[in-house]
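Q: What would this chain look like folded?
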Amino acid sequence: MSHSIAASNLTTVVSRDSLPTAIVKNMITVVLSISVIFINGTLIHTFRQHQVLSANPRYILYIHLAANDIVMLSMFTLMMVLIYMFFTLNTSFCMLVLVVVILANLNNPLTLAVMALECYVAICFPLHHVQICTVNNAYVAIGLVWVISSLTILPDVFVVLATESLDFFHSRIFCVRDQIFRNPRLKEKRDISFIVLLVLVWLTLVYAYFNILFAAQGATSNARKARNTVLLHGFQLSLCMLTYTYNQISNGLIALFPQYVTDIRFITTILFQVLPRLLSPLIYGLRDKTFRKYVKSRLFCARREAQELEPEVSNARVTGTPGQIRQADQIRR
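A: My prediction, written as structure tokens:
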């Protein structure tokens, strides 16, 4: 079975993978995505369990970053599995999933910029940090991030709804962005929006970094740590930029090797969409001493509780009444 898609003014025939190949690709996708979702989910659960974390604007912003990765990878994994199962998807469903993925992708660099500004205020204006970087302001900043992201993609959705026929939304397509937003002007708008967004974020990071760098000349440990943190923001932003070059690189490789369309899309998607999310919790969550301490304590507490509970369950089975034995079996399960 094959399907034609248009990419960068060329038409390519996409052949469906064989069953063994599809199974291998799905296994790789699901395992990597679930690993990242599990790690980020553990961090979010730890954040919710400890008020010292949930009352800190810095951790609120990071958890927003982690939650975005979970949403993005969940939608991405769902779409990948469905594509390998059915190859083509309903256009309306495809557009809904793509909009969610695009929003999550756009949120990441904007959140990184806000996190860099928080570090800048903490080091350069320490006396005003408590008044400026509050929990309420952190949630307001997250709301603004979502508004900016929505203003970037929602006009495209409205254009598609206004210009495409009803039959288009009931048809089935190979679910990629260019198949939904087919208007050439929308593609130009997308590229310009990404460039403007990334330039603004980079300027924010550079401004914050050099101001913190000058403050770090006082050799305070907090200033040096903040400088290194902003450097990591820059590294993470570089990884985010890979997601924005995904279409250009994929289409370029497809033009050179049209017989390997599905393999190219799979490899570039894993490299540019999934692996950067695997590094994010390592760069931020587990690097932070406070976060790492609470994650370790929670894991060790869960393990210790299980070890302490096992002798009690065994004793109940040996000496307990039938009701206690049933209760012990339920605890064991």
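The mean pLDDT is 77.
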